[in-house]
């Protein structure tokens, strides 16, 4: 199947912007819509966009991502991240459009000691993860596909790298959690992977198995990631390791959320680029 057109939901967000940019770089017809233009929860507006734009692929980058706020508004979070996603996937299926849902490492409980494979039992610890899991299940039921990812950073939105660099402006010492381990993911790299997967053999799998993982190697703690940021930015900063308990939050975070990406690498035919390469690209753009 030759690429014809992409509709990006949530195009105002960090990942959505990267997806539109990558599609343009590939000379793919692309329509990026923000929540103000097409609200995921309003299925009628999604259906209208599908009928007017006529894409071959829809990538959903729209989500309620304020993890702690999801604890306070779980019903709303589950509607946005779960049920609305399922309705959008069903609308795509009815029109013969491929639907790719972006999900999260938070569907796992973080108790593993080796990278999570797609088949590992899910057990989210918080409202955000529970809602995203509903979105996964309803997407696959409708015949769509799911791509789980983790620790996003990149241009066009608030992220950990930006936060660390801002804090470096008025501090010489930072306490950063050292007992949560995962893989940072650079949004332009993820956008490349999503579009590669959109026209891969992923769609030859049974709908119940259409889930893959995308994150950039290698695993690192938040503390180690912070150290790498200051190293690459050539900034002097003492980064002290502290436990998660030093920063109590409403939503529990998984302590280990490294995702196995072997299935994705097989589908797109190559190894995934390391996050440190993405970090260098991000810093080279003059990120504040």
Explain briefly what this protein structure is.
The protein is built from ten helices and twelve strands. It is α/β, with parallel strands linked by helices. The chain is globular.
Observed structural traits:
288 residues; two-stranded parallel ribbon; alpha/beta; six-stranded parallel beta sheet; 12 strands
Question: In angstroms, what separates the terminal alpha carbons?
Answer: 41 Å
Cα-based radius of gyration, to the nearest Å: 18 Å
Strand content: 15-25%
Give the topology string: H per helix, E per strand: EHEHEHHEHEEHEEEHEEHEHH
Helix content: 25-40%
Q: What report would you give on this structure?
A:
The protein has about 290 residues and is α/β, with parallel strands linked by helices. It has 10 helices and 12 strands. The protein has a 6-stranded parallel sheet, sandwiched between helices. It has a two-stranded parallel ribbon with strand order 6-9. Helix 5 links the parallel strand 4 and strand 5. Helix 1 crosses helix 7 and helix 4 packs parallel to helix 5. It is globular and about 55 Å long. About 50% of the residues are buried. The mean pLDDT is about 95.
Topology:
Blueprint: E1 6-9, H1 14-25, E2 30-33, H2 43-53, E3 57-60, H3 67-72, H4 74-94, E4 98-104, H5 127-141, E5 145-149, E6 152-153, H6 160-167, E7 173-177, E8 181-182, E9 185-186, H7 187-198, E10 211-213, E11 220-221, H8 222-232, E12 238-242, H9 262-268, H10 275-284
Parallel strand pairs: 1-2, 1-3, 3-4, 4-5, 5-10, 6-9, 7-12
Antiparallel strand pairs: 8-11
Helix pairs in contact: 1-7, 2-4, 4-5
């Amino acid at each position: 199947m030759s690429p014809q057109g992409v509709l990006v939901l949530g195009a105002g967000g960090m990942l959505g912007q990267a997806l539109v940019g990558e599609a343009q770089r590939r000379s793919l017809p692309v329509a990026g819509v923000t929540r103000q233009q097409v609200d995921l929860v309003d299925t009628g507006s999604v259906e209208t966009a599908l009928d007017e734009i006529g894409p071959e692929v829809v990538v959903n980058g729209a989500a309620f991502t304020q993890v702690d706020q999801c604890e306070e508004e779980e019903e709303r979070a589950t509607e946005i991240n779960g049920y609305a996603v399922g309705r959008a996937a069903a609308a795509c299926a009815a029109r013969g459009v491929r639907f790719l849902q972006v999900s999260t490492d938070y569907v796992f409980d973080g108790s593993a000691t080796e990278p999570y494979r797609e088949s590992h039992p899910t057990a989210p610890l918080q409202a955000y993860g529970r809602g995203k899991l509903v979105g996964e299940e309803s997407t696959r039921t409708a015949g769509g596909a799911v791509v789980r990812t983790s620790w996003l950073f990149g241009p066009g939105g608030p992220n950990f790298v930006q936060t660390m660099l801002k804090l470096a402006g008025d501090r010489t010492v930072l306490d950063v959690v050292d007992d949560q381990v995962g893989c940072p993911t650079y949004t332009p790299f993820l956008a490349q992977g999503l579009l590669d997967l959109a026209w891969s053999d992923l769609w030859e799998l049974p709908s119940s198995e259409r889930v893959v993982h995308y994150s950039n190697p290698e695993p690192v703690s938040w503390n180690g990631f912070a150290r790498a940021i200051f190293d690459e930015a050539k900034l002097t900063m003492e980064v002290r390791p502290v436990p998660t308990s030093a920063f109590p939050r409403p939503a529990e975070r998984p302590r280990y959320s490294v995702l196995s990406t072997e299935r994705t690498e097989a589908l797109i035919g190559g190894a995934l680029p390391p996050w440190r390469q993405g970090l260098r690209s991000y810093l080279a753009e003059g990120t504040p």
